[in-house]
User: Fold this.
Amino acid sequence: ATPTAVMVATGIGANHGVLVKGGDALERAQNVNYVIFDKTGTLTQGKAVVTTAKVFSGMDLGDFLTLVASAEASSEHPLAKAVLEYAFHFHFFGKLPSSKDGLEQRKEQILSQWLLEAEDFSAVPGKGVQCLINEKKVLIGNRALMNENGVSVPPEAESFLVDLELNAKTGILVAYDSSFMGLMGIADPLKREAAVVVEGLKKMGIHPVMLTGDNWRTAQAVAKEVGIEDVRAEVMPAGKADVVRSLQKDGSIVAMVGDGINDSPALAAADVGMAIGGGTDIAIEAADYVLVRNNLEDVITAIDLSRKTFNRIR
Ligand code: ADP
Ligand code: MG
Assistant:
């Protein structure tokens, strides 16, 4: 393609909300044979909602929710936002002004008065969060987080968790002072176009893959809904780029689509990195493409644009 053709294609992309950083990336997209999708926030809406909270320790449900919300208040994860929202509604439903503006304004103020003080907060990448509340350790996250801290999950809680996971929900486990307290189930619906895009890629001869830090059962349930057979689950943030490289070893051209900080090494390692608009700045920086509309159809638009530009004018 001539420089003019590349310029024209870049302009057409931009008009559709597909921003490409340079002619090389535009050219590489035509040959993609794998598209790897991050799950949370990429295939799914990233608008997580708590669907269940269950205490297994005799702790009062209200106290349980306060504990969890206090620990998650410092986390940026979409799961944390869902937990806070749920706890807030549990405690304050019916006691708040009906005007939305008033509510949004008062929320922060109310939350700050009501949350417990969390000290030494830290995020454990791919696993959850930890902190101290009332000088006792709080752990919130997946099984791996519980295991590595020696917290045993009782069998009835484990079977409840498995049930959630088989229904495409993410379960988060809560321990206080080394004892298991309870769990919450969180749903994060697929983007409405996700399944159509996956089907479209298959028709183009491209192999879709789902890549996530979430557990196998949840990942497989979501993959089934969206029509993806190739799933890589329980991948730690550092491992996402390795998955890209392992596919490249066979000579494949790999596109990665993601939104999170976790995804940025994989976006950089991919032949074609595509960041979802509205995703984190670090992901956007690492990518070759930015899909401004946050619509997965633009993955196909980007590949089509490259194919057209480089086949027609060669
Ligand atoms: P993904 O690749 O799907 O974006 P992450 O690597 O961000 O997943 O997280 C992997 C898993 O770690 C989550 O599914 C969840 O079980 C746990 N986790 C991460 N952050 C949190 C948090 N703030 N609260 C509870 N659990 C968390
Ligand atoms: Mg994500």
Notes: Residues 38-40, 72, 75, 77, 79-80, 126-129, 140-142, 170, 172, 212-214, 237, 260, 262 surround adenosine-5'-diphosphate (ligand 1) (CB under 6 Å).
